[in-house]
Amino acid sequence: MPYLKEPEPLRRKSEVVVPGIRRIVANNPSVMTYHGTNTYLIDDEQGTTVLDPGPLDEAHLHDVLEAVSGRVTRILLTHTHSDHVGNAAALRQATGAPIYSHVISAEPHRPDVPLSAGDTVAGMTVVHTPGHAADHVCFARGDGLLFSGDHVMGWSSTVVGPPHGNMKDYLESLRALRQRSDRLYLPGHGPALPDPHPYIDDLLRHRIDRETEIVATLRKRPMSPTDVARHLYAKLDPTLSRAAERNVLSHLDKLAAEGRVEQIGELWRSVEDEWESGSSMERRGF
Ligand SMILES: [Zn+2]
């Protein structure tokens, strides 16, 4: 995959990304979060909309409040994973600004203003993009700019795993963005992503290839998800093995729903070969 990297961003200060939108990166760098969570400050005549206030972190809250020019008019969340929602309640308390997030936001978070697909907020359209998280939304500005959260990030592929992730939803949400004409994505981590369509095509291909590999691996012998992950991601950084296993698990769930693999106790096996054999067809009632 042709991933987009960037040097370590300025710490504790906001930087202009495009006119009217600044980014201040939280200090939570890791293999999962890259340099940290992007908190976006969207300035207009009324004040500042804060999109993804970041992880629970007093210093980051202080820096965001410092960077805000006038009043904070609203707090938007792309989804309710802790590295995005953590500081939301404290920012709300400090500013009185209401929190907007998807109507099915994961417990215990409750939005002040629940959002649904197609709603307009801060002049942007809400695009529901479940997959990484069931409550994930993107915000599209209408001039080709889209806040893509953790659904599409240029620096890395997205973890799609239980309990909140769903591979089938994720692929459908990718295809839904592919249908749109947005030209610049501002993701939840890492740099802005211009010309997103070829990148989305790569992401889709990458997942379909993974799926084919998983089925091929299971055709050799039944395996546990851990074994499959080890098999597929042989060169993987050990700190990412749990994420890899979650990705594999959600692929297996999707493949099972499609009748291509099945689970027997701890192990999973391919059932594709048997589609050709009469005994399996009989067993399936054909
Ligand atoms: Zn994140």
Structure commentary:
This protein is an alpha/beta fold. It folds into two domains: 15-194, Ribonuclease Z/Hydroxyacylglutathione hydrolase-like (Metallo-beta-lactamase, Chain A); 209-283, Arc Repressor Mutant, subunit A. It contains eight helices and 15 strands. It has helices spanning 58-67, 82-85, 88-95, 167-179, 196-220, 225-232, 241-257, 278-283, and strands spanning 15-18, 21-25, 38-44, 47-51, 72-76, 99-102, 113-115, 120-121, 124-128, 137-140, 145-149, 184-187, 193-194, 261-264, 267-270. The protein is elongated, with a radius of gyration of 21 Å. 43% of the residues are buried. The protein binds zinc ion (ZN).
Quickly describe the structure.
The protein has 2 domains: 180 residues, Metallo-beta-lactamase, Chain A (4-Layer Sandwich), CATH 3.60.15; 75 residues, Arc Repressor Mutant, subunit A (Orthogonal Bundle). Helix content is 32%, strand content 22%. The chain contains 8 helices and 15 strands.
Protein topology:
Layout: E1 15-18, E2 21-25, E3 38-44, E4 47-51, H1 58-67, E5 72-76, H2 82-85, H3 88-95, E6 99-102, E7 113-115, E8 120-121, E9 124-128, E10 137-140, E11 145-149, H4 167-179, E12 184-187, E13 193-194, H5 196-220, H6 225-232, H7 241-257, E14 261-264, E15 267-270, H8 278-283
Parallel strand pairs: 4-5, 5-6, 6-7, 11-12
Antiparallel strand pairs: 1-2, 2-3, 3-4, 8-9, 9-10, 10-11, 12-13, 14-15
Bound molecules: zinc ion.
Zinc ion (ZN) is lined by residues 33, 37, 81, 83-84, 150, 188-189.
